[in-house]
Amino acid sequence: TQALELKKHLESTGKKVLYIETGALFRQFVESNDSFAAKRTSEVINSGQLMPAFFPVYLWAHELIRNYTGTEDIIFDGVARILDEAPIIASAIEFFKIDKTFVFHIAITDESAITRLQSRGQGRADDASITKIKERLALYQKDTVPVIDYFKKREHVQFFEIDGEPEVAAVTSEIIKALA
């Protein structure tokens, strides 16, 4: 939600934006072919597990290489979820000479996460039960929190911890203020 709000804001100021959402790239991949890789990807996603590092890197790197012209702001949504991905995205940022890197961690309680995931209404298998959601939250603690720590310590990264509990517009406002 917040990545799309940020995209709208940036575009409203006349900026071009390359928006790369890893989850959507996985869904497109699964829907676009019936290969073994697509079937296996669907199994992993439906089980609520994280994909191994090579696959999200392949998807977002392909989008970046194919679509980045050097003039857009880039929004990565859902990148990086495991520590193995973090230095790879850092190397891509260096390679493309992106001089301003902002990382936002939008923090919410587990209770809020459960409520929001259950209300998404997308019929996603990984949102189907409290048990699956709690498994995903445990994976987040184990796998994604170290990524947050990685980016907090990176030189040339401006890291922002944003309270994600208020209404969408209030959170968006805090993100926009951080960019100023």
User: In angstroms, what separates the terminal alpha carbons?
Assistant: 20 Å
* Helix and strand pattern: HEHHHEHEHHEH
Residue share in helix: 55-70%
Low-confidence stretches: none
Spatial strand order of the main sheet: 1-2
Q: If you compute it from the alpha carbons, what radius of gyration comes out, rounded to the nearest whole angstrom?
A: 16 Å
What is the 3D shape? Answer: globular
Instruction: Kindly name the structural category.
Output: alpha/beta
Average pLDDT, to the nearest integer? 92
Please count the beta strands (DSSP E, at least 2 residues each).
4
Portion in strands: 5-15%
Main sheet properties: 2 strands, parallel
How many helices? The count is 8
Question: Can you describe what's shown?
Answer:
The protein is an alpha/beta fold and 180 residues long. The chain is 57% helix and 13% strand. The protein contains eight helices and four strands; from the N terminus they run H-E-H-H-H-E-H-E-H-H-E-H. It has helices spanning 2-12, 22-32, 36-46, 54-67, 86-95, 110-118, 130-153, 168-179, and strands at 17-21, 73-77, 101-107, 157-163. The strands form two sheets. It has a two-stranded parallel sheet with strand order 1-2. Strands 3-4 form a two-stranded parallel sheet.
